[in-house]
Write a sequence for this structure.
């Protein structure tokens, strides 16, 4: 299997396509920060904080950032690392969980804030700045040429 084909299959598995309900042992958590070595610090709806690991098959293909919501499954062998990432949620999966009353109420308010902040992150302010700069120089050139002709 080529690298590209493998990445495609891993992306399909990690992201939300099938809208299945979480199993009894799985839970929805929010990522607080990355700790390195494919470990992420998360918080549960009850406020408990611990580390989760990124499965080997997702590494170098999937990235999780602060504020993302993920589905985790507990692991027995860890003292500090208590769970492993199963799925990474997107807006559609969160909407689906809210419609089915599975979404934790503790995460409702914080998600609205992050949606508003994420929209501002992707605005390219350099382009607008350059246009403004060019319009100022164009108008000053015109006024200079008008004054010279008089």
């Amino acid at each position: 299997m080529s690298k590209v084909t493998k990445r495609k299959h891993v992306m399909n598995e990690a992201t939300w396509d099938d809208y299945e309900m979480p199993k009894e042992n799985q839970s929805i958590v929010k990522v607080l920060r990355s700790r390195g070595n494919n470990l992420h610090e998360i918080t549960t709806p009850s406020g408990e904080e611990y580390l989760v690991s990124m499965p080997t098959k997702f590494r170098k293909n999937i990235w999780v950032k602060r504020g993302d919501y993920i589905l985790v499954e507990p692991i027995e062998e860890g003292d500090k690392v208590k769970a492993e990432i199963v799925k990474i949620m997107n807006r559609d999966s969160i909407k689906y969980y809210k419609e089915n009353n599975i979404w934790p109420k503790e995460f409702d308010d914080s998600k609205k804030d992050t949606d508003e902040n994420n929209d501002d992150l992707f605005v390219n302010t350099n382009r607008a700045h350059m246009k403004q700069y060019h319009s100022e120089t164009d108008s000053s050139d015109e006024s200079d040429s008008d004054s010279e002709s008089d």
Observations:
- Residues 1-103 form a domain with the OB fold (Dihydrolipoamide Acetyltransferase, E2P) fold (CATH 2.40.50.140).
- Helices lie at 3-14, 91-99, 108-121, 125-149.
- The CA atoms of residues 15 and 67 lie 16 Å apart.
